[in-house]
Amino acid sequence: MxxxxxxxxxxxxxxARSVVLAGLVWTSASTGAGTATEPVVPAAVQATLMVRVxxxxxxxxSWSGGRLTVGVVARHAGGAAELEQALxxxxxxxxxxxxxxxxxxxxxxxxxxxERNGVQLVYLAPDAAGDSAAAVAVAGARKLPVxxxxxxxxxDGATVxxxxxxxxxxxxxxxxxxxxxxxxLDPKLLQLSEVIR
Length: 197
Prior knowledge:
The chain is of the alpha/beta class and about 200 residues long. It is built from ten helices and eight strands.
């Protein structure tokens, strides 16, 4: 008999069941338990759109001080890795973009991390959707623009959302939030976007 055959009946089933349950718990935690997940624009396309939005911000050099630190906030490391890689080494209007990543655990730790790292723009990963209202409030108190990847996060007060509409990337702009964050978005970008005033 092999070692597998010597196991007591049911042990293999219990192990397999535990692995499946662990996977389901991780999936629920990363996508927001009980909510239908919204399709997300791929990270490389999000990075390109983010740079494009910044290219259309006539006040970028003023509020960034000539160097932009983008804080990528996610619940899990995997939620930030692709965007971090896609943004690394990019620039907008000649302003170099530096990326810092934060694993969200709460509003206080986010506030301290933003201050410690000199974050000037916050990107909330889709896996942080359940925390977007609190994170937007933290960023808003510091007058920082917040970019997100879902309509649900955008409705929590984010500045810009990079979403899919009819299977194509689409930009949503909260004009009041963008002005509050010191952005001055060119009308050409606004004509191409869905604008909430």
